[in-house]
Write a structure and sequence with these properties.
The protein is α/β, with parallel strands linked by helices and about 850 residues long. The protein contains 30 helices and 34 strands. Helix 2 packs antiparallel against helix 3, helix 2 packs parallel to helix 4 and helix 10 runs antiparallel to helix 11. The termini are far apart. The relative contact order is 0.07.
């Protein structure tokens, strides 16, 4: 029989149903002529309880912790219907050990190791008894007999007893010992030294135990069973969209484990790699999922990032001194301060006069006395800097240096964060940033989305954590029930008559407008008509009491043609880099006019003389879902900077120009609620420059969810934020000018499937709408949900790129989308297409533009 090592962690052995799963797994492997060699951890939280019991014993009160540990195991014994006296001897050893600590008021490293090792011994005795009861031929092994520590136990060294390593060469005696039985069960975490004492492999050491045993018995593979079914592109409990990594190489797995991925212990990789033993990470809760395979050859050889890993509670220490410049041996002196205290350095960065390091999180690095003495010695070398509230975020993947240019968008997401250190690993496997811990969880989903939102199913990447936990593999709209799901039949009929076709829903537009009108902090809303200029959309907006924001004289004339009696003050003109004549015509129309550049004031002052205008200012805090929609900041063409204000004031005074309002706009797709309050504070702080100021216009850019599983922006939080600001300014109106927020979710694009193509295992679904119809995916990398409206109730198991008929490689409307079995003639629905859809379309390739239909309520 082939030997298969299976490691089960604390959560995997903590419930009776999990042991039933383990038994079923053993039976299934035996049927395939594979012998299960089980390596088990202590029951979940028992190791922590043993540490607590030790602490309580030092103050004469261990009984509570002891009883909790005993009750925990007795409950498991009772639920599995095992003999009640199964662990009586172990309970006695535990109580005697705690009594000894209580009497001596001392815990040696040797005694601590003995105490903590009891958890694994007790859990495996329960497991062995249950598996025997299930009909397995079981051999219970004491791991200490076969795993021997490599570090000498000099003077009861803490490191040697608590965090040791073992040799893992092939062990013929062990192989002979397991021949006669079909299921073997032993402990993780523990081994023994030359004196026969119990020695530990460090927290999480059961993974390493499994790898050691796999090497010793020349196992065909080593499986690590845990609470998640493999390694993911990020921690799935923090990022629901994290993707399962189906296959990676040993070095990538070790790097991810070292960088904070908690599924594997870094030390477990080396024995498997040296023995050429594949590692497979699986979940006892989802045993049928394929998991992550770790071996020498990856599924895909090209350079790509495999995951984002986080480590919290990072301590960062720096030394700053001019004395280190060109001084031979300074770095040695600095590092010796850490070495002699047993402090392990993780990252290091140096410059001409500064060295910065981070410490591995170990008991010694958390020892106040050790750290106090370290700082005392470091102060002799120079000025010491210290921060203990940091986290590291690592981007892991082989040959990462070759794709540095692709990481630029990631750094754009971090422009307002404090980054203390950037490290590129020498092994070309990761780039690590050290940041404030409070910022990590905020940026992690954004960074993951940037890297993996368009990643399709391959031999490397599997489904997301959210999809894995979904019961029916259908998209989230089934629960959300958007407006179009209730009008499906009507939409299918419209698409049969005319495809491609934009369809807008009046009720959805009105609901969005009502959301905006409910904002107590906002005095006036102008709809940004460049988002969608359909006459009935504009009519709905005006009848709801909103104004219209225009960016060209053509848009202004379009409005007056549609609505000849419109009040000119219902129109706000916010152009940029236009010709002089457009300003003249707009002012003649008596609409609100905004100037966003000092050039017109310098060169055409007569146009604005004795006129009321607004100025567009750059608040230098641009944001948005793509660089092409960021409209503020030094790289943006929009707005007047504060550096030009003195000259602006001089120009307007000289030409008697009256500034009645200040305007700004940061970008599109912003969800950070304080963005608008920060802009408001900036604009109001400039009131002294403009004594006749009446209005501050905060622009638009309100975030709209582009995926079914994401929530709309919480306008109540935005309102509260701005109301706080409004308390400070009683005499200024606040304006807002949203576009996408009003109409994007009210519109869909319907397109018929023209062809379906398989090419070397990759599937393409062609439709009669392309980048000429909907430009946003090609221009902005924008994401639109896509569903098969014809097959709306079918399971979504097919993955395909959705492409159009335009003769361009960029003519892709969606990458790696999950669809049901899709055929020619099916109607696909592209969601959130009500804004910047038809208005940006073209006749490229002489393809006709899509028509539009407005569904009145």
């Amino acid at each position: 029989m082939n030997n298969i090592v299976l490691k089960f962690g604390g959560t995997s052995v903590a419930a009776p149903q999990n042991w039933e799963t383990i038994s079923e797994v053993c039976f299934s492997y035996l049927e395939k002529n594979e012998k299960p060699f089980l390596v088990c951890s202590a029951l979940a939280k028992v190791s922590d309880a043993l540490i607590l019991a030790k602490s309580q014993a030092l103050v004469n009160s261990y009984s509570k912790a002891f009883n909790e540990i005993k009750d925990r195991h007795e409950k498991m014994i009772d639920e599995l219907d095992l003999p009640k006296d199964l662990l009586e001897q172990d309970f006695q050893v535990l109580e005697d050990t705690l009594k000894g600590i209580q009497l001596t008021k001392d815990v040696t490293s040797r005694l601590e190791a003995k105490l903590l090792g009891l958890g694994e011994l007790m859990s495996t005795k329960i497991g062995a008894a249950f598996l025997e009861k299930q009909g397995h031929q079981v051999l219970w092994l004491d791991a200490r007999k076969y795993l021997k520590a490599t570090l000498p136990t000099m003077n009861s060294s803490s490191e040697a007893y608590i965090n040791n390593t073992c040799q893992f060469s092939v062990d013929k005696k062990l192989k002979d010992a397991i021949k006669e039985k079909k299921v073997i069960i032993t402990q993780g975490f523990i081994c023994s030294n030359s004196a026969g004492d119990t020695v530990l492999l460090g927290r999480g050491g059961s993974d390493t135990s499994a790898s050691y045993f796999a090497s010793k018995i020349e196992a065909s593979r080593c499986e690590i069973w845990t609470d998640v079914p493999g390694l993911f592109t990020a921690d799935p409990f923090k990022v629901a969209q994290a993707r399962l990594l189906k296959k990676i190489v040993y070095d990538e797995a070790r790097e991810m484990a070292s960088a904070g991925a908690k599924v594997l212990h870094p030390r477990c990789i080396e024995p498997a790699k040296k023995g050429g033993i594949p590692l497979l990470v699986k979940s006892v809760f989802l045993p049928k999922l394929e998991g992550t395979l770790i071996e020498s050859n990856s599924a895909e050889e090209r350079a790509q990032i495999k995951g984002i890993c986080i480590k919290n509670n990072i301590q960062i220490i720096s030394i700053d001194t001019a004395a280190m410049w060109q001084e031979a041996g300074f770095l040695t002196k600095f590092l010796e301060c850490f070495s002699k205290r047993g402090l392990s350095i993780d990252l290091i960065s140096s410059s001409e006069n500064q060295v910065t390091v981070t410490l591995d999180n170990t008991p010694l690095s958390n020892d106040k006395t050790v750290m106090k003495n370290l700082f005392k010695e470091l102060k002799v070398l120079g000025k010491v800097g210290y921060n203990h509230n940091c986290s590291s975020i690592s981007f892991v993947g082989k040959n990462i240096r070759s794709i540095l240019h692709k990481l630029t968008p990631l750094f754009e997401k971090l422009e307002d964060k404090h980054i203390y250190l950037v490290s590129q690993s020498a092994n070309d496997l990761n780039i690590t940033l050290v940041m404030d811990q409070k910022d990590i969880l905020q940026v992690l989903p954004q960074l993951h989305d940037q890297l993996f939102s368009e990643t399709f199913l391959t031999s490397t990447y599997g489904n997301s954590w959210k999809e894995i936990n979904s019961s029916d593999h259908r998209p989230a709209y089934l629960a959300k029930k958007p407006w179009w799901s209730e009008k499906r039949q009507e939409l299918l009929e419209l698409a049969q008559e005319n495809s491609p076709l934009y369809v807008y829903d009046q009720m959805t537009i009105e609901n969005s407008i009502q959301d905006l009108k409910s904002l107590k902090s906002i005095d006036r809303v102008f709809y940004s008509m460049k988002a969608n200029n359909h006459p009935k959309v504009l009519k709905t907006v005006l009848e709801s009491g909103l104004g219209l924001e225009c960016v060209s004289i053509n848009e202004i004339e379009y409005i007056f043609n549609l609505f000849p009696d419109i009040d000119p003050k219902k129109i706000l003109f916010t152009p940029n880099f236009i010709a002089k004549n457009e300003y003249i015509k707009a002012l003649e129309r008596d609409v609100f006019v905004t100037v966003d550049n000092i050039f017109p004031l310098q060169n055409w002052p007569e146009v604005f003389s004795n006129k009321d205008i607004l100025l567009r200012l750059d608040v230098l805090q641009g944001g948005g879902h793509h660089k092409h929609v960021i409209t503020s900041g030094t790289q943006s063409k929009f707005g007047i900077t504060k550096d030009d204000l003195d000259e602006v004031v001089e120009l307007i005074q000289k030409s008697k120009i009256n500034i009645i309002g200040l305007h700004t706009h940061n970008g599109s797709g912003i969800f950070k609620k304080d963005t608008w309050k920060e802009s408001a504070h900036y604009l109001s702080s400039l009131k002294s420059y403009f004594p006749n100021l009446k209005y501050i216009d905060l622009g638009g850019g309100l975030g709209v969810p582009d995926r079914f599983d994401r929530e709309k922006m919480d306008l109540k939080l935005l309102d509260n934020s701005l109301l706080e600001f409004k308390e400070t300014i009683k005499d200024l109106e606040i304006w807002l000018e949203p576009g996408r927020y009003i109409c994007s979710q009210a519109g869909v694009l319907l397109a018929k499937v023209t062809q379906v193509k398989d090419k070397s295992g990759k599937k393409f679904v062609g439709i009669d709408a392309g980048m000429n119809t909907l430009l946003r995916p090609s221009l902005y990398g924008a994401y639109h949900e896509i569903v098969n409206l014809s097959q709306i109730d079918a399971p979504y198991f097919q993955v395909a790129d959705i492409v159009g008929p335009i003769c361009e490689s960029g003519d892709t409307l969606g990458f790696s989308r999950k669809l049901p079995e899709t055929s020619e003639g099916d109607v696909l629905l592209i969601d959130t297409a009500g804004a910047y859809g038809k208005v940006m379309s073209s006749h490229y390739n002489l393809r006709p533009a899509a028509n539009e239909v407005f569904l009145e309520k």
